[in-house]
Design a protein that fits this description.
The chain is an alpha+beta fold. About 35% of the residues lie in helices and about 25% in strands. It has a four-stranded antiparallel β-sheet. Strand 1 and strand 2 form a beta hairpin. Helix 3 crosses helix 4. The two termini are about 35 Å apart.
Length: about 110
């Protein structure tokens, strides 16, 4: 897996950093982290850090419910539209570029290699 960091600025001036990873087993992109810098501040606050995981009620949840709670906090912090834009941007970054014939125009005989 590799992480792609997508930076967005919300309408209220809040800066966000959304970390997207490609899960090869599930064959899909997943949002694995959201960081927020409120307007007028310098330090990034990562959502879902120890503040949430140190809660006993959170620890009693199943793994599926923990994922739902984490995603709900992401949506409340930045909004569903921003998360979808980040997923699309990550896909755009990783999708293959079309090949162009002009790149391979060179005066060289390759017949002996084929």
């Amino acid at each position: 897996m590799y992480a792609i960091h997508v930076n967005k600025v919300l309408e209220n001036g809040t800066k966000t950093e959304i970390r997207v990873e490609y899960d090869e087993k599930a064959k899909k992109f997943e949002i694995v982290g959201v960081g927020v810098i409120p307007k007028g501040k310098r330090k990034m606050i990562y959502i879902g850090s120890s503040k949430m995981t140190d809660n006993y009620e959170y620890r009693c949840l199943s793994m599926e419910d923990r994922e739902k709670v984490k995603f709900k906090t992401y949506v409340e912090a930045v909004g569903i539209d921003v998360l979808n834009e980040a997923l699309l941007e990550a896909w755009e970054i990783t999708k293959p570029k079309p090949l162009e014939q002009d790149i391979y125009n060179i005066d060289f005989d390759v017949s002996r290699f084929v």
